[in-house]
Write a structure and sequence with these properties.
The complex is a heterodimer of chains A (384) and B (466).
Chain A (H helix, E strand, L loop, with lengths): L6 E5 L23 H14 L3 E4 L18 H9 L6 E4 L8 H14 L5 E4 L5 H7 L6 H21 L6 E4 L4 E3 L9 E2 L4 E2 L14 E4 L11 E4 L4 H13 L4 E10 L6 H9 L10 E5 L1 H11 L5 E6 L2 H18 L12 H4 L8 H4 L8 H14 L1
Parallel strand pairs in A: 1-2, 1-13, 2-3, 4-9, 9-10, 10-11, 11-12, 11-13
Antiparallel strand pairs in A: 5-6, 7-8
Chain B lengths: L16 E6 L19 H13 L4 E4 L7 E2 L2 E2 L10 H11 L4 E7 L5 H14 L4 E6 L4 H4 L13 H16 L25 E4 L4 E4 L12 E4 L4 H10 L2 E2 L7 H17 L8 E2 L2 E2 L1 E3 L3 H15 L2 H12 L34 H15 L3 H8 L5 E3 L1 H13 L5 E4 L9 H13 L12 H5 L18
Parallel strand pairs in B: 1-2, 1-15, 2-5, 5-6, 6-9, 9-10, 10-11, 12-15, 13-14
Antiparallel strand pairs in B: 3-4, 7-8
Helix pairs in contact in B: 2-3, 3-5, 6-7, 9-11, 12-13
Classes of the chains: A alpha/beta (384), B alpha/beta (466).
């Protein structure tokens, strides 16, 4: 990696990365699903200087009794948070295994308008058969089928974001025309399981294309701006990162689960306390259980292998304060992270160029399907 | 209008309710004026919503169209277009408003209950009980071309699907008992065992099984709006809706007849006949004098009905492309052509175009009107024009006689188009005791004076609306 400065993302869903995190939360359970809670956590992350928050989601409950079974939709939370923050990037998790790509594209484009270009999208899969029954659809069975739905969904969303050229609204009094219809494009997408006509009903997002994040084993490299890579140790993380970069994904973030020492208890004690209720599920990610200083050293080491990390704090109310009070300031002092600047798009913060519009780029030819032109657009992105 | 004893009317104490409809499509929104603002910048939405809240409006309302409008297979380019997703935009507005209701128009044909009911619930929780859902239906394949299933639904089934959709949505909204989540930091269980019920529904439209993921909000369910005007649409509203967003708000007799019709339908399904709020869509133009108001209206109409728009509206009536004609010249000599309705904007919606054209010809000839003048005078009409006191008297008559409960106002300018109404008309209405002087509740259901959600009542319910 060219620069050792890391981008810091943090996942802020629920009460933390552990199913039983709610037991150590600084609030009563019934405060979780309130607007105050949603905006407070986002404000802490923004003030701490994180580049990005992500918000996990899915059609199924986040867990089962005795743990939390409720969750407000990630896009709704993201939009709510966007209106009360000014700097931090905001990326909801939105699986397209069953969802309508046309709706998802509209929602995310709207989020980018609302946040003035701070929006991202974490693409995940709905794996469980219960999701199909909730949606009332035949199950999308197997990793290949799920990957197909993600690939097509991302392709449709990206094509729709380009379906309005930036200057499609012309307000020409002389010709009585609000739109220049030559600058609006049918995407005419046809995939394996469905087709989408277009154009979008939302004008092109301020960033042109939102920042798309996902796992390289689930989403094609060319469709991702940021690959989220796992790996239980530094060796596997750096191998996965190198593979993602070689595949052409412009940025790579490592997934890191963290439990930190707090003034009240050591990280080990805190994990042990929660493990009395449930094991901390192993997702094959790097995991740090220890002091803030040790985490700083780990992140410094990681900065040679990845562009950023996405932190998954054990308990938000405990670990986020240590992260914002100790970890981020130390990293900042050592110039290992850069704070995002107000008024800067997420894309700019990540050093990604605003992509050319595939339809503008393809204009002279005036033919070619969305699928064919997509590759050209993503290639331009790769050039950075 | 004749002045009557203010107490000698059917509803002497009835108050007017206002919503604001940030429309984002069609020619009523002027885009060419110096103060015509952005249709997508979040600041425009914030400004309109906050102005409405300053004016103690009940609701901020967003529409939806799931495909860009077309005429003759080409994208309609004359009007404002390009809007944010409604629930996403409203979730953002929930953070910058405190009291006003936030109503999303969302389609029951191209959504699924698990997703849409949850999104509405999320908005309802984030706004602490201020969400509304305007239920709309579509059946055409033209819109379906943007969705996985395509145009799958028969026209006859669109309300059947909407009604079954609502049944599933309400089951999801009722899936959590009140107080299901523990309020104690040291609780052994996050939620009370058994307090969250699985929803299983198998019907002609939906076969789903799922666990609802959200508790009820402060208002129980999002407030249900309905906008269809057909007999089927009215019956749907009578069975399911809390508010009807009607097209009957210009003429008093027409408005009253519509209201009476709805009350009859409400009684027929066993609901109290004051159970539904009637909020026609309208435009309100205010002048210091009657003449000034009329002059303002003329200016507004000329901005709205540009020469190209006049040719477009006439083209829809005639069923032929008139875009190369002279809007300032006479009416086309051809007879109208009857075309098929495919659902696109350009498709015919006029029942008997020949009769309408004949009427237009007769009046244009009598007044010496050009095509554009004819469209302005006889084309789509709506709105109330007058001085603030004249309008207040008129609205008092409408509301106290039970013809309407208020208006869903479409500003002709974004984002400043509500200022006159809030600064001039609202105080005039307040002086007459016709409008609230403060919000008395916190939820949209409170503002509208509605009873509990329909599934929460012990039948029969004869309680008075609050």
């Amino acid at each position: 990696m060219s620069s050792p400065a890391l981008h810091l993302a943090v996942e802020i869903d629920g009460d933390g990365a552990h199913l039983a995190a709610w037991r150590r939360a600084a609030h009563s359970p019934d405060e979780l699903l309130t607007p105050r809670r949603v905006s407070r956590v986002a404000a802490v992350a923004e003030n701490a200087g994180f580049t990005l928050i992500t918000l996990d989601d899915g059609v199924l409950p986040p867990g089962a009794a005795p743990n939390p079974v409720g969750r407000i939709g990630a896009v709704e939370r993201a939009a709510f948070v966007a209106a009360s923050t000014s700097t931090i990037g905001i990326a909801p998790v939105v699986p397209v295994t069953y969802a309508e790509p046309f709706h998802v594209s509209s929602q995310l484009a709207s989020l980018d308008h609302i946040s003035a270009g701070r929006a991202g999208w974490v693409v995940t899969e709905e794996e469980r058969p219960e999701a199909a029954r909730a949606w009332g659809r035949p199950p999308v069975d197997g990793a290949d089928a799920r990957a197909r739905e993600s690939r097509d969904g991302v392709e449709v969303a990206r094509a729709l974001w380009d379906s309005w050229e930036d200057d499609a609204v012309i307000r020409s009094v002389a010709t009585s025309r609000y739109l220049d219809r030559e600058r609006l494009h049918y995407i005419d997408f046809t995939g394996d399981t469905y087709a989408v006509k277009g154009p979008a009903i939302v004008p092109r997002p301020p960033q042109g294309q939102l920042v798309v994040l996902g796992r390289p084993d689930q989403v094609p490299a060319a469709q991702l701006d940021v690959a989220l890579v796992g790996g239980r140790d530094l060796g596997s993380v750096s191998a996965a990162a190198a593979a993602a970069a070689a595949a052409g994904t412009p940025r790579v973030f490592a997934e890191v689960e963290v439990a930190l020492d707090t003034p009240d208890a050591t990280a080990t004690e805190r994990v042990a306390d929660l493990e009395r209720h449930a094991p901390w599920r192993d997702r094959g990610r790097l995991r740090h259980i220890g002091s803030a200083d040790q985490l700083v050293s780990l992140l410094a080491e990681l900065s040679y292998h990845v562009d950023g990390v996405r932190l998954h704090p054990l308990v938000l109310d405990e670990d986020l304060s240590v992260l914002s009070g100790l970890v981020v300031p130390t990293l900042s002092a050592r110039r290992l992270v850069a704070r995002p600047l107000p008024g800067t798009s997420l894309r700019s913060t990540l050093g990604l160029a605003r992509p050319a519009n595939r339809f503008t780029a393809a204009a002279p030819a005036a033919t070619g399907t969305a699928t064919a032109t997509a590759t050209a657009a993503t290639t331009q992105e790769d050039v950075r | 209008m004749t002045r009557t004893d203010p107490l000698d009317v059917p509803r002497p104490h009835a108050q007017l309710h206002f919503g604001v409809f940030f429309q984002g499509v069609n020619h009523w929104t002027i885009w060419s004026a110096p103060d015509s603002g952005s249709q997508i910048d979040p600041a425009s939405f914030r400004r309109v919503a906050q102005t409405a809240e300053r004016g103690l409006f009940d609701a901020f309302f967003l529409g939806e169209g799931l495909r860009l409008r077309e005429v003759d297979g080409r994208i309609h380019d004359l009007d404002v277009a390009g809007r944010p997703d409604a629930i996403t935009q409203l979730s953002a507005l929930a953070a910058v408003t405190r009291r006003i209701g936030l109503v999303s128009t969302s389609n029951s044909t191209f959504n699924e209950p698990a997703d849409l009911a949850r999104r509405l619930s999320g908005l309802d929780l984030l706004s602490e009980g201020r969400a509304g859902w305007n239920v709309v239906t579509t059946d055409n394949a033209w819109t379906g071309a943007n969705f996985r299933r395509g145009g799958y639904l028969d026209h006859a089934d669109r309300y059947r699907r909407a009604e079954e959709f609502l049944t599933v949505a309400r089951a999801l909204w009722d899936g959590w008992e009140d107080g299901a989540i523990s309020d104690s930091p040291g609780a052994r269980e996050w939620s009370t065992p058994g307090a969250v019920r699985q929803v299983r529904h198998r019907g002609t439209q939906f076969d789903v099984a799922l666990a609802p993921t959200l508790p009820r909000s402060a208002q129980g369910h999002p407030v249900i709006f309905q906008a269809g005007d057909s007999g089927e649409g009215r019956d749907f509203a009578a069975r399911n809706a809390d508010v009807i967003f009607s097209a009957h708000g210009n003429d008093f007799d027409d408005a009253l007849a519509f209201a009476e019709d709805l009350r009859t339908r409400l009684r027929a399904v066993g609901r109290p006949d004051d159970d539904l709020r009637i909020l026609p869509g309208t435009e309100i133009i205010i002048g210091a004098t009657e003449e000034e108001a009329q002059e303002k209206k003329r200016w507004i109409r000329l901005q709205q009905v540009t020469p190209a728009t006049a040719l477009g509206i006439a083209g829809l009536l005639w069923g032929i492309d008139l875009s190369d004609r002279d809007a300032d010249g006479p009416l086309p000599e051809e007879d109208p052509v009857v075309a098929e309705n495919d659902g696109s904007f350009g498709a015919r919606r006029i029942a008997d175009p020949r009769a309408v054209v004949a009427e237009w010809r007769a009046k244009a000839e009598a007044h010496g009107w050009s095509l554009r003048e004819t469209v302005i005078a006889l084309g789509p009409q709506r709105g109330h024009v007058g001085t603030r006191s004249g309008l207040a008297d008129k609205f008092a008559h409408f509301v106290r006689h039970g013809a309407i409960d208020g208006f869903n106002v479409t500003p002709y300018l974004i984002p400043d188009g509500l200022d006159d109404i809030v600064d001039l008309l609202v105080p005039e209405l307040q002086e007459r005791g016709l409008y609230r002087t403060d919000y008395t509740g916190t939820t949209l259901r409170d503002h509208l004076g509605l009873r509990e959600p329909l599934t929460h009542r012990s039948a029969p319910d004869h309680r008075q609306a609050g």
